[in-house]
Amino acid sequence: MKSVRPGLPEFDYIRAETIEQVSELLKNGKPSRLLMGGTDVFVQMRDGAFSPAILVDVKHLPGMQSIQKTGNKGLRIGAAVDLNTLAGHPEVVKSFPLLAEAAQSVASYQLRSRATMGGNLCNASPAADTAPAALVLEAILVAQGSNGERRIPAHDFFTGPGQNALQDGEILTSIEIPPPPKGPVGRYLKLGRNAEGDLAIVGVAVLGYADKTSESGFRFRMALSSVAPTPIRVPTAEDILESRTIGDETISAAAQAARKTAKPIDDVRASAGYRSAMVEVHARRALHAVWTALGREA
Amino acid sequence: MTEKVGPKSFPSPIGESVPRIDALPKVTGEAKFTDDIQFGADLLYGRIVRSPHPHARIKRLDVSKALALPGVKAVVTGEDCKDRFGLYLKDRYTFCKERVRYVGDPVAGVVATSENLAEEASRLVEVEYEVLEPVLDPVAGVQKDSPLLHPQLKDYTVASFIYPKHGTNISNHFKLRKGDVEKAWSECSVIVEREYRVPHVQHTPIEPHITVAKQDRSGQITLWASSQSPFAQRDLIAASLGMSPRDVRVISPFVGGGFGSKAGVSMEALAVIMAQKVPGHPVKVRLTREEEFYCAFVRQGLVAKIKVGADAHGKLVAMKTEYYWDAGAYTEYGVNITRAAGYSCTGPYDVPNVWTDSYCVYTNHPVGGPMRGFGMPEIHWGIEQTMDQLAEELGMDKLEFRLKNCLREGSITATGSAIHPIGVAECAAKAAEAIDWGEKESSSAPHKLRGKGLAIMWKAPAMPPNAGSSALIRFNEDATVSVGIGGQELGQGAHTIAAQIAAASLGVPMDWIRISGPIDTQYSPYEWQTVASRITWSMGNAIIDAAKDARRQIFDLVAQQWEETPADLDIRDGQVISYKSERSEPLENLVVYGLPKEDDSGWRGGPIIGRGSFMPDYVSALDPETGQGPRAVVHFTAGCQAVDLEVDTETGKIELLRVVSAFDVGKAINPDQVRAQMEGGVVQGASTTLLEQLRLDEGFPINASFTDYRIASTMDMPGENISIIVEVPQDDGPWGARGIGEHSMVPTAPAIANALADAAGLRILDLPLSAERVFNALREKEGMP
Fold it and tell me: How far apart (Å, rounded) are the C-alpha atoms in residues B252 and B213?
């Protein structure tokens, strides 16, 4: 049983103004930790998971809190944009409603006013609610370090529970969402124990769009949270949906493929068996919702 | 009674939804809670070294490294504790002496200049344990070969109505024998026998436990505590220290919720032992949210074996019950939950033959204590599902079965006394009507099933026979009134009710009343505890008594002045009036300064202070072998909840569409507050039904945080939450009032389970009805793995 402290340990707080300053601080040898919204970092410090001498606040680096359109209808989201801002931003709501839906499913309104998308991704929890959206939108995670900029595709970013692909001295500065395919429909379905505020037992993101080059005439992307060591894409399900005529049978087959791909564990929220069954149910429901909406538009 | 006297109209505040008097300070943030009080530079902080084992012997305890840390002022251990303490059974030391009995049991306390420093020092206390075999299940705990948690049980001081079994883990065995159960089974045409399990749950008040304790140079100890029971804490803590209650003062400012967890004594005594080592310094001890889950009281677990039989006409004939309470490491308070469950074992039903054994069992689990309902939500979980199944087997409508068998005025209860007028049947009928009982509703989707269920309940205040209340009424110069009470405002609205009762019983406007606070045992009049839904009734009676005393003094004075008789006088709208002479005099002219004699020879009267008290004098002892007696309790509040729900067969999730509550409160002093209690009870009831369980893995709590232990939020509220007030007056209640605070979460769980049974045709006998458990039960019913 973890022995929780009554308060935070002492630390120095530094508000970084430049990337160079951050790299310098991370290299100087003192145990340090980056601070975004703090909704995970402070809890873990209180739990005694780590005890940094310095917290480097990177929220105020240039561009960290802005959302900008990129040239061809894509978006560049500063890593420190809080989740309420993200969920309510007109461009996000208009072009990437799936991302808004995912952002809005995280924790509670109060926490979302602090929590950031960059933090949610870097924390690399298997249950991160914005991760499946980042995966199906094929986001590019832009990292800055002493060696300059590195662009990491979302599907390469999550390397294990709590592990990400950032190297020492690198920080995530923005998330680039490439231009959406034409006429996309997305859904994120999350199962928690109660209506709001819980971590996901299962999360399923689905993005679908018409594409004459595929056998079924459509392409689908699907990603899952909370049912594997990292958030994952489900290529087997996507293949089924591209190669067979879309209907109840194909959707069920794709949902079953999602279930097979998932590698859930038992935890305090749910058993592996229940998670496994819920992947199938929620994959099917998300696919139905997307397919119904696509059909309406077609 | 409706006659208006004086210049202003004077409506009685009784039965009016007067706004809460504590609303303004709470919404503005002006209300001060214990942690808000500033103590200056003398303040020290305490942290507790707790047992990491469910059951172990302390082999070695070395505090030297902790003491050596700069800034550490004292370290206390079991050696600093004098006597055992407890409410009904003195079975615990503040700090453990030789043995630890649950994960979290206090072993040492560290006092330092900051909370973080105290925490760091607490990690330097070295404790060597010899791990002992734990008791983790109450049924296993009563077996002969079970490890013994309290070998010295026979030496413990115990209340006269509690029956520990020496040499076992049973700290109370309540027996009830009425009629001849074994013979009666042959008269039954239908018998249902089931075993139910209820897990531990937590109260989760928004404000965790906190106490600041200080010992001054004269030896007086003062506590500032978030407390439901300042007087009981004074008494119990003084006794454990070998001190007089005179020398222990408890001050309790605003309280951020209690639900029973802040009754009696739990962590408050820790701060006192620590403060005794650093005289002159206040010592603040507060539980973290994580500690709150397993270091304060929890609601006890229960294994209930219930067998009930009815005859061919659907009349109940016999009932046999065994309760095994998973009462935890210390049962000083829990022993009385066992007793209350025993004498309430039939639920609000007329059952001629009853056999009950209710066992309070020591286990190596967190300390069981009072929680909203005091055993009643736990036992009604089994009772009301069993009654539903009995009705099913009889082929009877479940409402009709209940109306046929429920208590009516004069019915003989399980303990052998005639029940007072009680509105069980009226509540059931009204709740059923509001939920459109008997009408099958269609579900909202093909994968959802819809159903309805209801459950009835009863509950009596569970307390010693002589639990008392008192009140003081003091007039100010302008005839406004300071009302002194010892009952605590926990968010339930008690102080608003107190003000309404004081205004109405004195005959002054509501806005003349101010409740004296904070509750301070040095100034506030005695109140046993703010528990048991007894405050409106008991404290209310004390206030009425104090108002009568004040009025008598005023009438004596004015009668002498006017040369009239007191019987002709009254107070209306703040004026003394005579029905005989039709004279009147504003109270402000006489309640402090008295009245000048006609001949200028002096004055008569003086400051008016009314004193009042109330204590029931009619609660009798019950026979230790049969549980029979003339009057087991003061009264029962009864009610019914009806539920309309849908269950998602693909996920197991239950969605509450409509919940109707109907409770017989005797008289609603403040109808909005009564409805608020019903609504809140539904939310906490639903939360403990669908979500909550303190998970104990081999004795170790594994979900002790709000991340892992979910409670219902506003988003989880039923679509409709309807409250119906029924008023069958209580003969000795203020205006006929009885309590309602706890009752509204008693029938929620079985009402939901009964509705689930109606919807999906399945019975789940263990709480909670989590989506996963319901999903698994649905799969099992379909014959799927």
Answer: 12
**Closest residue, chain B, to A280 (C-alpha):** B650
DSSP collapsed to 3 states, B433-482: HHCCCCCCCCCCCCCEEEEEEEEEEEECCCCCCCCCEEEEEEECCCCCEE
Chain B nearest-CA residue for A281: B650
The DSSP annotation for A185-236 comes to EEEEEEE-SSSSSPPPSEEEEEEEEE-TTSSSSEEEEEEEESSSSS-EE-HH
At B55-77, the pLDDT tens digits run 999 999 999 999 999 999 999 99
pLDDT at B137 over 60: yes
- What CATH number does the domain located at B23-31+467-614 have? 3.30.365.10
Going from N- to C-terminal start, the domains of chain B cover: 23-31+467-614, 39-132+208-255+262-294, 301-463+621-781
pLDDT in tens, B165-206: 999 999 999 999 999 999 999 999 999 999 999 999 999 999
Q: How far is A9 from chain B (nearest CA, A)?
A: 7
DSSP string, A158-171: EEETTEESPPTT-E
Residue B419 DSSP label:
P
Determine, for residues A191 and B651 on separate chains, whether the beta-carbon distance falls below 8 Å: yes
Whether residue B286 and residue A9 make contact (CB cut-off 8 A), yes or no, is no
Residues of A in contact with B695 (CB under 8 A): 268
Give me the architecture of the B301-463+621-781 domain, per CATH.
Answer: 2-Layer Sandwich (3.30)
Residue A234 structure tokens: 């489900």
How far apart (Å, rounded) are the C-alpha atoms in residues A69 and A91?
Answer: 8
Q: How many residues does chain A have?
A: 298
Class at the top of the CATH hierarchy for domain B39-132+208-255+262-294 = alpha beta
Shortest Cα–Cα distance, B90 to chain A (Å): 29
C-alpha to C-alpha distance for B743 and B666, rounded to whole angstroms: 13
What is the mean predicted confidence (pLDDT) over B648-674? 98
Residues in A whose CB is inside 8 Å of some CB of B read: 1, 3-7, 9-10, 191-199, 268-271, 274, 277-278, 281
Residue B100: CB atoms within 10 A of its CB come to: 27
Residue ranges of domains in chain A, CATH in brackets: 12-57 (3.30.43.10), 68-177 (3.30.465.10), 200-297 (3.30.390.50)
Judge whether B23-31+467-614 and B301-463+621-781 match in fold.
yes
Q: Tell me: the pLDDT tens digits for B47-56?
A: 999 999 999 9
Compute CA distances B582 → B561, B568, B677, whole Å. 14, 10, 43
> For position B6, what pLDDT does the model report?
38
pTM: 0.97
* Residue in B521, B510, B556, B528 with CA at minimum distance from that of residue B613: B528
**Smallest CA–CA separation between A106 and chain B, in Å?**
13
